[in-house]
Design a protein that fits this description.
The two termini are about 40 Å apart. The relative contact order is 0.10. This protein has about 400 residues and is an alpha/beta fold. The chain has eleven helices and 21 strands. The chain has two domains: about 220 residues, 3-Layer(aba) Sandwich (Rossmann fold); about 90 residues, GMP Synthetase, Chain A, domain 3, CATH 3.30.300.30. It has a nine-stranded mixed β-sheet, with helices on both faces. Strands 10-11-12-15 form a four-stranded antiparallel β-sheet, with no helix packed on it. The protein has a four-stranded mixed β-sheet with strand order 20-19-18-21. Bound molecules: zinc ion (ZN).
């Protein structure tokens, strides 16, 4: 894929002229904007991080005069100050344009009725879903989260055809609808589901119990909000809007771009954002760019599903391993269940990976161990020691389980 060098260099000029936040980053890092002339120069620019954004709380990111700011959003911080993102009227419009485009990729039209269950308020979920749907001309049912009984009543009475939701809330609704035995009164055809990392099992249950087609939507508050990418009807990656954002994939340890098609961390530069433009913003989300055009014919490039966060990554023999990668690999081998864990340890000065996984009743442990080891070698690039066990042999945990244990530095 050709890189949009001119547009990126224009971004550098623009943030250097308008954004006190980037003026300071450039100054602190000895960057002279006029000297940034090539793609190499661009790829050597400093990154920005959520922590940098937090440090300029409340409005240090603002890059336009006060009278041009029409709204702020905030991304929740578990510690310390939140990040505040100012939006201009054009930013709000641009976000709605992207969101409407995302909906049309999901096959939604102005005849649809969308029930919006993500929250409204400081964060970017509900209002983004709403603005995009209104732009498309669909009927919005702006429920916000919770109150499941009322959600289900409105869903029946107003004959909602599209559900906007998190994966966990979609599952909860699906279970409640089936518990009440009212599936035949529900008109849902599609679910547009926030693309945090969630398993195929959960996906399959929502699809089965609600009988809907599911579209993954991705985004983050720092970069408009949800709606910057979505999968098309072929469900082979999420199309992202490269007229609004530039996506790089970097190795989170070396911070260098990875070859096209390889997994790494998504880094985003905004082409048009006015209120708070971002240059090389580290998302810490792990994915990859899918090379080539999508068979659907769309001109927009694709990234893969989000495999997890950089914090979950381990590096073994110079290869980055993400839990999501192991899940993807195991799910394609028939007879292997979804439970697994990996132990990285050091033996006689060498890194060794033990991969424990469970197999379905009746399957041959030995043959599946061979298949898993060979698949691991070909897909991730290193040799492992496979240890197959029967269902139930691995510990279960209510909490989100730690999938990769790294003993090397203990
Ligand atoms: Zn497509």
């Amino acid at each position: 894929m050709e890189k949009p060098v001119k547009e990126l260099l224009d971004c550098v000029k623009r943030v250097n002229a308008c954004s006190p936040f980037y003026q300071k980053i450039f100054k602190d890092n000895g960057v002279v904007a006029e000297d940034v002339k090539t793609m190499d120069d661009f790829e050597n620019l400093p990154f920005s991080e959520k922590d940098d954004l937090r440090k300029v709380y409340p409005l240090g990111l603002q890059a336009v005069p006060e009278e041009e700011v029409v709204r702020i959003h905030s991304s929740s911080g578990t510690t310390g100050d939140p990040v505040i993102i100012p939006y201009t009227a054009q930013d709000v419009t641009d976000w709605a344009i992207m969101f409407a485009r995302a909906y049309s990729y999901a096959g939604m039209t102005n005849k649809d009725r969308i029930q919006i269950t993500p929250g409204y308020g400081l964060w970017t979920a509900g209002i983004g879903f709403q603005a995009g749907a209104e732009r498309l001309g669909a009927m919005v049912i702006p429920m916000g989260p919770g109150n499941t009984a009322k959600q289900i009543k409105m869903m029946q009475d107003l004959k909602s055809t599209v559900l906007a939701s998190t994966s966990s809330y979609a599952l909860l609704l699906a279970e409640e609808i089936n518990r009440q035995g009212i599936r035949d009164k529900i008109c849902l055809k599609k679910g547009i589901i926030g693309s945090e990392r969630w398993g195929d099992k959960m996906r399959a249950r929502i699809v089965k119990e609600l009988g809907i087609e599911i579209y993954d939507i991705y985004g983050l508050t720092e970069v408009y909000g949800p709606g910057i990418s979505i999968d098309c009807h072929l469900h082979c990656g999420l199309h992202y809007w490269n007229d609004y954002i530039y996506m790089e994939i970097i190795d989170p340890q070396t911070l260098k771009p990875v070859p096209e098609g390889e997994y790494g961390e998504i880094v985003i530069t905004t082409f048009r954002k006015e209120g708070a433009p971002l240059l090389r913003y580290r998302t810490h989300d792990i994915s990859r760019i899918i090379p080539g055009r999508c068979p659907c014919g769309s001109p927009y490039p694709r990234h893969d599903r989000i495999l997890g966060r950089t914090d979950d990554m381990v590096k073994v023999k110079a290869v980055n391993i993400y839990p999501g990668q192991i899940e993807e690999l195991l799910k394609d081998i028939s007879g292997v269940s979804s439970e697994y864990n990996a132990l990285v340890t050091n033996k006689d000065g060498k890194d060794v990976v033990y991969l424990r996984f469970e197999v379905e009743p009746g399957a041959s442990l030995e043959s599946l161990e061979k298949q898993v080891a060979s698949r691991f070698k070909s897909m991730i690039g290193i040799s492992i020691i496979p240890q197959a066990g029967h269902i139930g042999s691995l510990p279960r945990s209510e909490k989100k389980s730690v999938r990769i244990v790294d003993e090397r530095y203990e």
